[in-house]
Amino acid sequence: MGAAPAAPERGTRMIKTLRDAEELVRTRHVITEVPTHGPTSLVEQVMGGRPTGSWRDHAKGRLAYRLGRMLRASKDVLAVRLVEGKVAFVDPTLWPAVYRVAMEPARRRPSLQGLSAEARALLSTVERDRRVRLEKEGPWTKAREALEERLLVHFSEAQEDDGRHVAVLRSWRDWASVTLQADAARLSYEDAQARLRAACDGAPTGLGPWVF
C-alpha cells in the first residue's frame, strides 16, 4: 500500500503536468524536488501534502519522479543542489544570484579540495569543451555527481533521439548569457546568498553544503 500524504496545506495546488510544475516554479521562485525544511517541494505539491512514508511508494510517486526529470530538461528551469544538498528548481529571476554564487572564487577554491582524479579530469574537460554529454549511469557517474554537488558545473538532462536520457554538463560561463553574467556582476557574493536564502524560506538548515 502506498504511503499516505499528510493533510494538504491551505492553497496547495495539485500538480499534474509539466506546465503545472513550471508555473509552480515561476510562482514560488524556488522549490525543491523532495521535501526539506525549506521551500515547498515538487513531491508535496504532486501528492497534495508531505508523504508520511517513502514518496516513491506513493500512488503518485511515478508522476512526481517523471515531472522531476522533465523539469531538469526544461529550458525555463534551473536544477541545482541548493537546499540541504537536495535538487532545487529555480526560476530565471534568481539565475543571476545562482551564477554569482557558483562563480565566486572564495567558494570554488575550497570546493575543489578532495575531488577525485576522475572528477578533476572531467571538470577540465567541461571547462575546455564547454559542454559534455554523458550516460546517466556509467564510469563517470561519481565524478559527475561530485561536480554537480559542489556547483562546479551546470548540470541538466536531455533526451536523445532514441529516447535515452543523458546527463549534460556545461561550464557555468557557457550556460550563462551575456546579460545574465552582467546582472550577476552587479551582485555582491553576500547579496546573492541573501537572495537565495530569502527565496528558500530562510534556508533554516542551510543552503547546500557547497553554497555556504
Number of helices: 10
| Largest sheet: spatial strand order | 1-3-2
General form:
globular
Distance between the termini: 40 Å
Query: Taking Cα atoms only, what radius of gyration do you get, to the nearest Å?
Result: 17 Å
Descriptive account of the structure:
It is a single chain. By secondary structure, this protein is of the alpha+beta class. The chain has ten helices and six strands. The chain has helices spanning 18-28, 42-47, 61-73, 95-103, 105-112, 117-129, 141-149, 172-175, 178-185, 189-199, and strands spanning 30-32, 78-83, 86-90, 131-135, 154-159, 165-170. The strands form two sheets. The protein has a three-stranded antiparallel β-sheet, covered by helices on one side. Helix 4 (95-103) packs across helix 9 (178-185) and helix 6 crosses helix 7 (141-149). The chain is globular. The model is unreliable at 1-11 (pLDDT under 50).
In short:
This protein has helices spanning 18-28, 42-47, 61-73, 95-103, 105-112, 117-129, 141-149, 172-175, 178-185, 189-199; strands at residues 30-32, 78-83, 86-90, 131-135, 154-159, 165-170.
Short key terms for the protein model shown above:
212 residues, alpha+beta, 43% helix, disordered N terminus
Strand and helix layout:
Elements: H1 18-28, E1 30-32, H2 42-47, H3 61-73, E2 78-83, E3 86-90, H4 95-103, H5 105-112, H6 117-129, E4 131-135, H7 141-149, E5 154-159, E6 165-170, H8 172-175, H9 178-185, H10 189-199
Antiparallel strand pairs: 1-3, 2-3, 4-6, 5-6
Helix pairs in contact: 4-9, 4-10, 6-7
